[in-house]
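User: Here's a chain of 364 residues. Predict its fold as tokens.
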Amino acid sequence: MSNETGFIKIYNKILPILKSAESDRKKELLKFGILEFLLIAFFCFVLIDYINNFLKLSKYDDFFIIITFFVFILGGFIIALPFLANSSFAKSIKASCRYHIIKCFDNLKWSFSKDIFTDDEKRESELFSVYNYKKIDDVFEGSHNGIDFKIAETELLDVQGSGKNRRVIRVFKGVIISFPYNKKIESQIIVTTRNDSMVHNKLNGVWALIASYILIWFLYYMFRDIKILICQIFLTILIIAVIILNFYERQKWYSIQEIKLEDPMFNKRFKVFAYDQVEARYHITPGFMERFLKLQTAFGTNKAKCSFNDGNIMFAISTNKNLFELGGLFTPLTSPKTIQKFYKELFSILDMIEYFKFDENTKL
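Assistant: Prediction complete.
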């Protein structure tokens, strides 16, 4: 099925569902418009009264501070409301149309919040830094031309500390894709976007530890408190352990080569790491590079990476956008553009699977 033919087939099947949902969208949009208008009118009234009182005040009191806080909260809520309403409506449309969409694809399952990639799989791929929290959204599992595949919209976070000292590092946000790779691989091959530091199971927060160590040393120097000294000793041990672990990881990747391929544009945008240069060139072909770039284009991003490892290939496409959306509150559901975007995202993955199936059959 060609890209255009496949899209027309899906669009014609789902169009009746979208037409019936379009009337619901208009009703929800009207409710949202009335609510937003009332909130803006109320906000303007409060803001005008606030400015008038502000000009009359000679000094601030607690009540004025509370009103100031309320004005900022209300303004923020009015700004955020369209995004919240659109997100909520998009999820409801996706849930109602999901069954009709998956019928257009053979052997496709679509679910939400199901963790189909184990932590070991992600760690062995070497595509991500260390993380301790994950969020899963859309999940697809199925088979295309005899090749099983898994797709998961995923966010990986490294959460450190708590309370005021809580620090959240986003390790990855986007879509993870994996399917079997039947060609023999003697060693691992990694393709990453240049300047991507969130790879190779790298530990996060080293500089934060060092900064904390310097601060605690300064406090001990100022106050000579034994409790501060104990904290300093503990942090010293922790920093040494982290440095040793990072050194171990670096030593591992010093033994792997960065491969320069024939395509200068691909070399400019990506780094290819492998233990065997000949093997890397055998697998990273011009056909692969072309489809890899198509994946980036389909998901509207310039950050992507993949790993050939242990009979599997895993892709990680980074993007902050909500993926696999079927429509929203502010766009007519019958417009083909939204469905075309959904199909383009999914078809680009199936196209990559098609390439590997063809590659396997022709022994290229």
